[in-house]
Amino acid sequence: MSGDPEVRAKRPAQDRRGPGRSRDFRIFWAAQTLSFLGDSFALIALPLLVLEATGSVARMGLLTAVGGAASVLAGVFAGVVVDRVDRRKLLIACDLVRMVLYALIPLLWLAGPRIWLLYAVLPVCEAVGMLFAVGYVTVVRQLVAPERITAANGRLNATAAAAGVAGPMGAGVVAAWAGPAAAVAVDAASFGVSALCLCFVRFGRAVPPEPAAAGRRLWRDLLAGVSFLRSHRVLRALTMLLSLFSFLELGLNDLLIYHLKHDLGQSDGTVGTVLAVGAFGSITGALLVARIRHGLGFGPTWIGAVTVCGCAMAGIGWARDVPAVAILMAAFVGGGSIAGTCSMSLRQQVTPEHLLGRVTSAFWTIHYSAAPIGAAVVTWAAQHHGTAPVGAVAGAACVGIAALGLFTPVSARRPEVAAEAA
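Given the sequence above, the corresponding structure tokens read:
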């Protein structure tokens, strides 16, 4: 936590209270739930639109890859933007832009399928979403005390998972009843309500950077987050391991949808139900992560969670009935929720206030950079070789990533304590 009195003075008075007692955090929490609800609708609605129009899992994977690439590119500059603008206004603007762009899809789809529109809209929305995500991470520390960050992130992730239960189920029902385009319309509306909620939240601002020549300052700022990650031994190793994990993980939803629709012959409603049931694992993981990390420490918690993800991924393609697929999905998402909350909380705890946006941006840009390629490769392989062998290979690789973590500083139980001592 920054010791600069200017930063402390600009923070809301409620930030020393527990997450549930802070007015600003509660409103922010509600806004995030709505945004997560919209994201979960898009998670199933957009792939279903592509599958409905083309019948190709490879085209689904290509759309995911294009969106992921745009997110990575935006991540290069997102931290610089977040550390320099009013974060409340930025978050509101991001929600409004996504509301407008997603609303265009069902409107234009009325005249017939427009696959080109998805490839035009999704990259922009993903880029804006990256700006929103970096801003979201930076303001959590301004709304609660440092020692409560993991608990606050757990609550946010739990409600995100709850939205992940309601969202896919609702999207599946809406898609089955009125078509996937109608589910995208609900997605657009959720971003509008989220923007309205954010209008009532008070955020502090990071310390402005030292004056410098424009060109030199931009180059220095782009490298500042990378430099910090490289200098921090735990974050450096964690970034490398997560880059490998993201390569395998991004295409899982497309793989799951294809397995249910193509291999098992299930309906859109069943797809939504399976994703909703699976999301209960994320709720459980998010609610337990603070307690598990407190008891086991960071390293054992993160490595164990990634191991669970790998085992679940390996089994999904071999599961021949819907309940088994749902249980394995719950295990995968639950492990991902625990690992993700631990990693995000550690960055928030050990990063100086004025660098938090740029470090977050650099972290996500690096570890997501290979993910779009991975999504395209995994879905292409699934279409040509089947979901079962591809899932097994990807799952085994995830377990290998967890094993690598045992030989890196990521295995440390209390890396945040070492950072405070330094």
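The longest helix spans residues 23-54. Try to locate this feature in the token string yourself.
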